[in-house]
Design goal:
single chain, 801 residues, alpha+beta, Topoisomerase II, domain 5, Gyrase A, domain 2, Topoisomerase, domain 3, four-stranded antiparallel β-sheet, 24% strand, flat
Length: 801
Amino acid sequence: MRGSYLLYAMSVIASRALPDVRDGLKPSQRRLLVTMNDLNLSPRAKFRKCAKITGDTFGNYHPLGEQSLYPTLVRLAQDFVLRYPLVEGQGNFGSQDGDPPAAQRYTEAKMTALTLELLEDIDKDTVDYAPNYDNSRTEPQVLPSKAPNLLCNGSSGIAVGMATNIPPHNLGELCDGLIKLIDAPETTVDELVEIIQGPDFPTGGLICGRSGILDAYRTGRGQITLRARTHVETGSAGKKSIVVTEVPYQLNRDALLEKIADLVKAGKLADISDIRNESDREGTRLVIDLRRDADEEVVVNQLFEHTQLQERFNVMMIALVNRRPRTLNLKEMLQCFVDHRFEVVTRRAAYLLAQAEERAHILEGLLIALANIDEVIKIIRRSKTVDTARASLMKKFKLSEAQANAILRMQLQRLTGLERDAVKAEHKELQEKIAGYKALLADRELVYDVIREDLYELKEKYGDPRRTEIVGEAEGFCMEDLVAEQLVVVPVSRSGYIKRMPLATYRRQNRGGVGITGAAMKEGDIIEHLFVPSTHDYILFFTDRGRLYWQKVYDIPQMGRTSRGRAIVNLLNLVSGENVTSMIPVRDFGSGSLTMATKRGMVKRTALSAFSHPRRAGIIAIKLNKGDSLVSVRMTRDEDYVVLGTRGGMAIRFAARDARLMGRGTMGVRGISLKKGDVVEGMVVAEKGASLLAVCENGYGKRTNFDAYRIQRRGGKGLINIKTSARNGKVVSIVDVRDTDEIMAITTGGMAARIPVSTIREIGRNTQGVRVISLKGDDKVAGIARVPAEESIPEEAADES
C-alpha cells in the first residue's frame, strides 16, 4: 500500500496538479493546446466544437477522462480567470456569477494569438517529445513558450501533500523584469519588485500593502490582502448607494450578494436597504443601497469585515523544475524561464543550421551540375538505370548520394539562366544564414539578445496597463476609494504636529485673524505650514537624511479645532534622530520637479514622477556625503529662480533649470561655493511680489526685494545678503514674505514674537538690517517661520466649503 500510494502521489504531483515552471501549464492544459495546434485552430481559423477538441485530446494524448478536459478548456477561455486567455470561446463559457458553461456540444473554441507564442517553433526540435499513452504518437513534454505564461496567468492546484497558488501578473512588467535579469544576472528580488510591482488580477480590485507581496517574492510564500473597488453614488432624492465595480479574484458575485442579504437579515448590516446585481458584459456593478441616515464609510468597513469584498490570497509559488516540485522565489522563477528560452533558442538555431547546411549541400551539387551540364546530360543518357546514373555522377564529380539524387530530380527548367541565378542567390543566402546560426551558437550573448528582442516584441504586442491597483496597508481601512474626495485643511506646527480638519469647520473662524487659533499647542509652538489639499492628494515628507516619506492626506488623522494633532514621527517610519525638513503637497506626479538644497551647498532637481512609488520605510530622495544634510525642498518649474542663503550671510540667485534633472540616487550639483565654516541655511523660490527676509541670531533682520539679487550661474560664491557682524550674529533663517504675511520668531530661551512683515521695510542687500526682535541676556533667535493667515486659503476652497 505504501509503494502504491507513493506512485499515486508522484503521478498527481508530476502529471496532474502542478504546472511546469517553463511553460506554466499542467499536462491536461498542454495537451489541449497541442490538440488545437494539430487541428490548425489558429486565431484566423474557424471555430471548432469543443467536443471535437476534447475528444481528440482524450483519444490522442489524455486518457484520464474526457469529463475533466472540458472544464479545463473552459477555464483557459474565461477572461475573469486568466489574465491573458489562451483560448477564444464562442458561446456560453460561464460567468463570474457562478453560471456554468453550456455543454461542449454547443460551444466552440480556437486559440488566441498569445497561444501561438507559446507554440511557436514547436516543430523545430526546440523541445523534447515522448511517446503518448499508447505509443501511437509522440507529444511535447513542454511548450517552447515565448511568453512567461506561469506568472502571466498564474496557476492553482492541489497535489498530494502540497498545493500551488500562483497569482497572475502583468505581462509588460514581467517582460521588463526579465530584461533586467538578462542584463544584470546579479539583480536581487527587491530590485525586481521595483519593476514587477505585484500580482495583476484579471478582475482588478485593490491589493492592500506590499508586505505580503515582498514575502511571496522573497520566499515563494505570502499572504496578499485583496479588496473590492467601491465608490459611493448619490441618487436624485439624495439617497446614497455603495457601488462595487471590481471584486477580488475568483469571487462569485451572486454568492457575495447572498452573503450580504444574510447579514442584513441577521442585523449585522442594518444600514443596507437593498442590494442588486447590475453587472453585464461591460463589467461588474453591484449596487448596495443605504438608508438615509447611514454613514457610507462605516458600512463599507463592515462589508470588508464580514464579506468577501476583502479576502486574503495565499501565495504558494510551487512548480515543477526538472519534474520535481520546488518552492521558488520571484527571481528563481524568472531565471528558470530565461534558462528555458536559452535552450529553446539554442536548439532552434541548431535545427535551422542543420536544415540550412543540408540545403546548401544540395545546392552545391546543383551548382556543380549546372556548371557541367553537358557532361551531366551525357552521363545520364549513357546510363541504363537510375542507380547507374547516380553512381556515375558521384564518381565523376565527387558528389554525395543526396546531391546526385537532387541532380537526377532536377527539372529541365532549371537549365535556364534565371533559374541558375536563383540557385546561386539561394546558396549565397544560405551561406549567410549558416554563418549567422554558427555565430549565435558560439556566443551566449547573442542568444540573450534574441531572447531580449522576443520580450520587447511581446510587450509591444500584448502589454497593457495594470488592472489591480496596489494601495496602502489595510489597517484602519484607509483606502482612497472609501473616502469621499473633499478639500480639507492640514495645519502643521513647528514642533512637528499634524492633523486634518474639514474645510467648512475651519472657515467658521473670523476672517482677518492672526492665524489659526484654538489648538492646544505647546508653549512657543506655532502653525508653520498650512495646506488646503484634497483627501486624495499626497504629502511628501523630506527628512534631513535625504529620505522621502509618502502619505495620503486621508491617512492623516482627522481631529477637532482644539486638538494639537498627531506627531509626524508617529505617522512615518522615521529612524532615530531623523527630522522632517520639508513638506510638499502633490495632486499627481505627472509633471513638475522638486529642487533640493543641502547644508554643504549642493542642489539637485528631480522630476516629480521619480517619487511616485515610495516604500513604507521611505526612499532615497538625494544621496548625501558624510556630514551633509538636506535643508530644504521646493516645487519648481523650469522658469523659476531659486535663492540659496547661507549662515554667513551670502546668497545666490540662479535659474532652476541650471540644475539639470537627475535621478533619485544622486548627489546633485554645486549650488553655491561656500567659504570655510559656512553652510546653507535655507532655500526659497523667488516669486514676483515677494521679498527675501533674513534673520540673524542676535535678533536683527533684513528684508530685500528679489530683484536686488542679480541672476548668476549656479556654483558661484553669491552676493552679500546681510552683513553678519558681532552685532548681528549668524543667519538662522531665510523666508520669502509679502506685506500681508506675518512671521513668528522663536528664541532658544523659549520666547516667541509675532511680527507683521509690513513693519519691516525693504532695504538694500549689503546692509546690517534692523532689529526684528529684542532679546534678553544671552538669548538667541532659534529660527523664524512665516505664519500662514486664514486668508491664505484659496477663494475656490472657500466656495467649496
